[in-house]
Amino acid sequence: RGHGDCGRDPLNNHRMEQYEATVKQIEDIRKETEKNALIGELEDTSRLLSEYNDDIFLAKLKNLVPLYPKLRRTRGDGNCFYRAFGFGLLEALLGKPAELDRVLPIVKDSLQPLLDVGYPAMTTEDFYEAFVELVEKVKESQSLEPVFSTFNDAYMSDFLVVYLRILASGHLQRNSDDYAPFIEGGRTVEEFRKTEVDPMGVEADHLQIKALCESLGVCVRVSYIDRSPGDNPTVHDLPAGGQPLVHLLYRPGHYDLLYPSTSA
What we know:
Layout: H1 10-35, E1 43-44, H2 55-64, E2 70-72, H3 80-94, H4 97-108, H5 111-116, H6 121-141, H7 145-151, H8 154-174, H9 176-179, H10 189-197, H11 206-216, E3 220-224, E4 234-238, E5 246-251, E6 254-259
Parallel strand pairs: 3-5
Antiparallel strand pairs: 1-2, 2-6, 3-4, 5-6
């Protein structure tokens, strides 16, 4: 007889309410995230000051603003580094024809090394062609519009993100001896790639950034706004010693694009 009362078990009801609340929270976050553009318009970096009441963050932001008066926000979907980097790279190359002529052959030659380490030609070629086509469009049009519209088209934007992830992952695989000592948790390079690089929606850290930059022969500067000591953002150039072509802002769990002051 007691089994008929299971539906009114307070513990079960509580668990179901918790589960439903969690599902709703995840859905609310997804909806809120999707309100944001994949790549936003240029805006004043100083607007970030009104979004924090944490003295440590505010001190670093106040010192960042004169160096980087403008930024573009990216959607916080776990792919923000790759999207910001891809867009920022093509935008930077627009104004640097010599750099564009240097990077374009690297991009065009990037497919075969991936096939050589086992990436399937049928799918990899599609992602590769989408990326090459956009870089060539930048060279032909000398306009940001095709880059902006492509990176804000969810389907095409994700295509580009997938290829950038493949580039980083393939570079890690080809240079596993160099990267293995820096992978934490006793994981192999292969395990790291399968869990931290290949899947969409997984955030990037130092190793992924360095691998992607090295694969394309470019350097990125990341300014970190976090709880580390000091009033200035921590700055890392990846790979070290390069001339940064792309500038990124990192706040815990998220990357946006930064635009240096002409006098910086």
